[in-house]
Amino acid sequence: MRPTKQPAWLAAYAPVCEAIAALLHPYGEVAVHDIASDRIVAIWNPYSRRRPGDPSLLDELGDLETVNGMIGPYEKVGEQGQRLTSVSALLVDAEGQARGLLCVNFDRSPFDGVAKLVTEFAAVMTERPPELFSRDWREEISLLVDEQCRRRGLRRDSLTRADRLALVGALDERGLFATRNAVTHAAHTLAVSRATVYKLLKEARS
Questions:
Q1: Rounded distance, CA 97 to CA 11, Å?
Q2: Which of 43, 50, 126, 153 could form a disulfide with 31 if both were Cys (CB 3.0 to 4.6 A apart)?
Q3: Looking at 82, 109, 136, which one is the last position of a domain?
């Protein structure tokens, strides 16, 4: 929604505000406050039910003249208890005079609910039954590589030769290369050739 009358300085910012509101619709409320009148002069996606002309209450924010660029992101709580992430930016005219304050309030509560659902759905409910996996050497190789990468903060797609050498050494210490085709599976897990695994294994054992 746009007001019937807008201050002249707002014309340069309105298209940007509309773009932000369109991108974040329906979860992003975009409001522009006029510093001089302490009123809302434009608002898009107004889920807070505020309207142009409503009081801005900018005095609660302190001295806006000391604001340099952007404030936030910071957390807020909506009228209905929804969790918001907000950011504010000072708007100036062609002469550099502070005229308004742009505030974007993003309602992240729907996404918090989705994140909670995904976390609960993907959570491991019980430990792996040892009787099912004790002889699954492929699973053991994959788990050990994953465990070592997590422990050392390594990304599987950016392992160095030294990283792979350490991982091959750890696999060998577990006796996981005693099984036929284990080298092939380890090569696939580490994204290298079988020849590379053999070279690393020889070096790890020397």
A1: 15
A2: 43
A3: 109
